[in-house]
Write a structure and sequence with these properties.
Elements: H1 3-26, E1 37-49, E2 52-64, E3 68-80, E4 83-94, E5 100-110, E6 116-126, E7 129-136, E8 139-146, E9 152-153, H2 162-168, E10 177-183, E11 188-204, E12 207-218, E13 222-228, E14 234-239, E15 242-251
């Protein structure tokens, strides 16, 4: 081979090596598919007790194309003069099973003496083990709890958590069905029962609407009644002596 031919061969080889290196950098071998938002449903509720407004709850449900649903909840409840609780919750569940993956809670409690304190709770689920980390009055805490398959998460005063229990109810079997749920504050597992009553018609956003009626009885938290429309949206709730009335619904 001539000297010029040798130089050309070396030049081509170098060019190929450089091109391969650039391609390797610009096209990762394990590039992840971007997650897409497929739908958003936002509902807002007025919380009433003895015909008096005591608070509100806003639930934003985002569904993604990777088997994930994110519930974002902002709730405010007044329990007595000067006593109120504001909550921000982010609950991630699997779309196919509604099994919880993560939960982040920030509670701000106002007291009559004009002082307030916060309670932060983070829950991560690893198979059937829940790892719960919290900070209350500046003091951190951590617990680990083995939970049963299909466990839901429930916390007092938040309507959104009941979507998990509704999802697992088997309409074909009907009757009263048992479920289990975890209290993220006490880090305990409790049981409950749910049954479906005959359908009825109620006024929802000034329109007569056919709804399914569910009776839920939870150990520790007591009974709750839920009215659910044909799209699976809770349009009314009655629990812990408070009534949750739907005042707004948006879908995109």
């Amino acid at each position: 081979m001539s000297v010029n031919g040798l130089h050309r061969s070396v030049g081509v080889a170098v060019a190929l090596v450089v091109s391969a290196a650039v391609a390797a950098v610009s096209m990762p071998a394990h590039q992840k598919k971007p997650v897409k938002l497929t739908s958003t449903v936002t509902t807002e509720y007025r919380i009433i007790q003895n015909k008096k407004k005591m608070g509100s709850e806003k639930i934003e449900k985002k569904t993604f194309d990777n088997n994930t649903i994110l519930f974002t909840v902002d709730a405010v409840m007044t329990y007595a003069p000067g006593v109120s609780m504001t909550q921000h919750c982010e609950l991630t569940v699997e779309e196919e099973s509604y099994f919880p993956r993560t939960l982040h809670i920030k509670k701000t409690i106002a007291q009559p003496n004009a002082e307030s304190f916060t309670h932060n709770i983070d829950v991560e689920m690893f198979s059937n083990v829940a790892e719960v980390n919290s900070v209350l009055h500046g003091q951190p805490g951590a617990k680990r709890l083995v939970v049963p398959t299909g466990v839901a998460i429930q916390d007092v005063g938040v309507l959104a958590y009941l979507y998990q229990t509704l999802f697992w109810y088997d309409k074909e079997s009907g009757g009263e069905q048992r479920f289990q749920w975890m209290d993220p504050v006490a880090v305990e597992v409790h049981s409950g029962d749910i049954r479906m009553d005959p359908e009825t018609t109620i006024s929802v956003l000034s329109k007569k609407t056919r709804v399914s009626v569910y009776q839920v009885d939870r150990e520790k938290f007591g009974p709750a009644t839920l009215w659910v429309d044909s799209k699976g949206i809770i349009v009314r709730g009655d629990m812990n002596m408070f009534v949750f009335e739907l005042v707004s619904k948006k879908t995109s």
